[in-house]
């Protein structure tokens, strides 16, 4: 089923209400998602992206109901990742001559994944155009590392639609498709989660690219990303959010992240939250046990925070494996301009604080000097020591 967007432009994708994880199991899905493909039917008929391979048969059936595949003039592949290109092999079986428009890195991606060097690739770069007829054209804008080297966006002139690929999207299923039809709180929660967990490592690149797009002075009436809602009501609002998020973003929030063996480190974490609240009542304080909370949801809160505190007991002369894995993910995201503190309990050797400090420094955090390192279970005086960390973070 296609859904009308504007004039001769239609949505032709898949709303996946049951989807629970993405990127394998690396990204959690709490509210479903969508894979958005778009059909332009001017003098030329053009498809912008496809959908993930599990839905390829449904997609191809829907496409064939809407158009004669022999009349399809081109496909724009804005990004080679399989959630966008998963139906491409099936389409090319039926139209092996179909021109594919993508970046040079897009060719590398598609050949590397699908092993079809013989396909009719047409390489485009920023500023190149594709005439769709009736006085309209697609203008291509390379978006390298947002979030793959092959990524690009396409702008449809006259209709003023920006097909933005992974930029400005969310993993969020909305049956009515458009941003003004979505629950606004959930929409922006999913938008910031998407940015925090996928695009944060490329924030400096995103900042430059956003300025480039803004500098093109495009009239944008609609932003059509590859996942989630289509922005038709004040679409520039999500661009403004990206500008804000790409600039070492932080709110007045401190997030405490920990894991524990016999609740000693847990007691320290909760005492720290109480002390921060007393010192700075307006500061939002949140606590998460890494083993009990989804890592992507925690990371969204870390992204919003101006400071964090990380706690782990010592286990086998090291930190708990749950904390170690989470810190590896934290380092990958390359967050900037945030403070951190460390704390933990130990029984025999007590290396955890030293390791936490090293890992947080490697992840780009400014680790404050005060720390709390407790032998065995905390006494009241040990809990009182958490105030020194609270003061350093506040």
The quaternary structure here is single chain
Integer average pLDDT: 95
Strand content: 15-25%
Specify the CATH class of the largest domain: Alpha Beta
Largest sheet: 7 strands, mixed
Distance between the termini: 53 Å
- Percent range for helical residues? 25-40%
Uncertain segments = none
Would you count the extended β strands for me? 24
Main β-sheet, spatial strand arrangement = 1-2-7-8-9-10-11
C-alpha Rg, in Å?
24 Å
Our count of domains comes out at 2
Structural class: alpha/beta
CATH homologous superfamily placement of the largest domain: Ribonuclease Z/Hydroxyacylglutathione hydrolase-like
Backbone shape: elongated
- What name is given to the CATH topology of the largest domain? Metallo-beta-lactamase, Chain A
Number of DSSP helical runs: 12
